[in-house]
Amino acid sequence: MELIGHLQTYEWGKYGKESVVAWLYCNSIDCRIDSETPYAELWIGVHKNGESRIKDCLHPLSEFLSKNTHVIGGLTSEMWCLPFLFKVVSVNKALPIQVHPSKVQALDLRKRMPRIYKDVNHKPKMIIALNDLQVLCAFRPLRQIRRFLREVPELEMIIPKELIRNYLIKPRKEWFIQMLLNILSREEDVMETTITCFLQRLENESEENKTRYLYNLIKKFSEWCPNDVGIFMCYFLNYFTLESGESIFIAPGIPHSYIQGDCIECSACSDNVIRCGLTPKFKDIDVFLEIVDLKSYTIDQLIMEAVPRTSGTVLVYNPPLYEFGITKIIIEKGETFQTPLYEAFCTFIVMSGEGEVGEDNGKRAIKVGSIFFLFANERYLIRCTKGNNMVLYFAYPNTRQYYQSTSNTID
């Protein structure tokens, strides 16, 4: 069953033909790409903030599923219909620095602040880079944070000197939280003065020093979000670039921001977010500090390796939760791929190539941007007939993880 994804035009999205989302969405519905539209996200799922539609009739996907529950699969009926939200994301400028709550935290926030936090589900997620994707993710190793505190004098303009000195002597958790609170609560005029001093001081420094102290990144942040409290958070969070095909799993509480690039994203079916910086939107600093994971991670600890199958033409991304998994499949021209008989539904999007899906009496053409919903317990043939290799990304309930969470008898 072919779907039309829901387009989100957030202001941070890539404009026009620079956006992977634009190419996928516009090609799938045969419309012109608008150079003045920020094509930010393409949603595939049934979330109320952006539901997919059935291409043949334009009815909401949830309407069809409510009348045909067998196509979801018995297991996922137990997991509340579609347990994930599948996306393609195109980032032109940094998203807010944010965290997502756990299930317990989401329920608590809904009870305490229902007008702000309306979604009661958690939002663990996984991203796979489609090209070079710059990100901030998780707190840096302690030695890196301490180096920046010693070597960047402007930090003393937004964090009390005594607090920095105490933390450098003995890095206690409560002092770390106090440093974050000081940074994220600073007045706009203080941030303006601090950023100006930093940029003027490093403007004529060597390229080596500019790189060492993230001059270009901070300059970009200051242009995108002038005087924002999140601008210097790059000294506390890991800043790195994912190459095409590399992936990270972002658990609840992990602070993160996508800075520039395009990616596949899959998350639990939630739009729950707590922001702390790099945004003009509401920042909930108290809640951010309440639920943020303060653990330090190396970049190697964050990157999740895909598992190759079938001589590398199938790559499986298997996160540690049951709501979703992702598989990348490459089909060479003239070749046919048969989907496995699976106890739950799956969805896929075509990233490149042309071909067809289905049996002889029910074939449908597929092309770049095509999105399909495959029914549970049915096999499908997908054939690449034109162009270079066909590349598809599949998302599905991660039933193996589900079984592992409910039983100790799985091999």
UniProtKB/TrEMBL annotation:
Keywords: Isomerase, Metal-binding, Zinc. One of its GO terms (biological process) is carbohydrate metabolic process. It is an enzyme of class 5 (isomerase). CDD domains: cupin_PMI_type_I_N. InterPro entries: Man6P_Isoase-1, Mannose-6-P_Isomerase, PMI_typeI_cat, PMI_typeI_hel, RmlC-like_jellyroll, RmlC_Cupin_sf. Pathway: Nucleotide-sugar biosynthesis; GDP-alpha-D-mannose biosynthesis; alpha-D-mannose 1-phosphate from D-fructose 6-phosphate: step 1/2. Binds 1 zinc ion per subunit. GO terms for cellular component: cytosol. The keyword Magnesium does not apply. It comes from the Eukaryota. Its cofactor is Zn(2+). SUPFAM superfamilies: RmlC-like cupins (SSF51182). GO terms for molecular function: mannose-6-phosphate isomerase activity; zinc ion binding. Residues 182-237 form the Phosphomannose isomerase type I helical insertion domain. The keyword Isomerase applies. Belongs to the mannose-6-phosphate isomerase type 1 family. This is mannose-6-phosphate isomerase.
